[in-house]
Structure to design on (154 residues):
């Protein structure tokens, strides 16, 4: 199945992370534990859900808090994949630690500020990748995979 164009430009890195870094748990005891990825590189098990969240943020009113109710009622995101959205938005600094949208979140909602906010969010969440390859956000998929699969600290 061909990948659809990505209007937000954000979820590509998460998609690439899943391709390279997910591995099966070693034993049944490990199944309930979250995976730890060296270097603090965040990932989402459901990049499609994250992409829909970003697209929904653009159209929705800015909430006081990015709550589960907001995700379900306004963004129409439910289930286990939706639980990964707030932590990723916090890593990107679109949300404060208490779940309040930041100025970067608001900037992402505007047509004029979206690309700059997306770039800043990527740099915030994937700083280690930008340290390894300054223009990783413009690299092709294989180059991003090479950066991800190289030995990361941590």
């Amino acid at each position: 199945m061909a990948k659809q164009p990505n209007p937000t430009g954000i979820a590509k890195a998460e998609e690439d992370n899943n391709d390279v870094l997910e591995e099966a748990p070693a034993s049944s005891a490990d199944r309930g534990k979250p995976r730890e990825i060296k270097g603090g590189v965040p990932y989402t098990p459901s990049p499609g859900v994250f992409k829909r969240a970003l697209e929904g943020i653009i159209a929705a009113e800015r909430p006081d808090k990015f709550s589960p109710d907001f995700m379900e009622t306004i963004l129409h995101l439910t289930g286990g994949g939706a639980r990964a959205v707030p932590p990723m938005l916090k890593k990107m600094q679109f949300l404060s630690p208490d779940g309040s949208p930041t100025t970067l979140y608001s900037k992402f909602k505007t047509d004029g500020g979206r690309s700059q906010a997306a770039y800043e969010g990527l740099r915030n969440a994937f700083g280690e990748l930008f340290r390894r390859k300054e223009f990783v956000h413009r690299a092709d998929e294989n180059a991003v995979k090479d950066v991800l699969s190289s030995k990361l600290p941590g």
Q: What stands out?
A: Residues 1-28 have pLDDT under 50 and may be disordered. Residues 53 and 75 are 6 Å apart (CA to CA). Residues 11-16+43-149 form one domain.
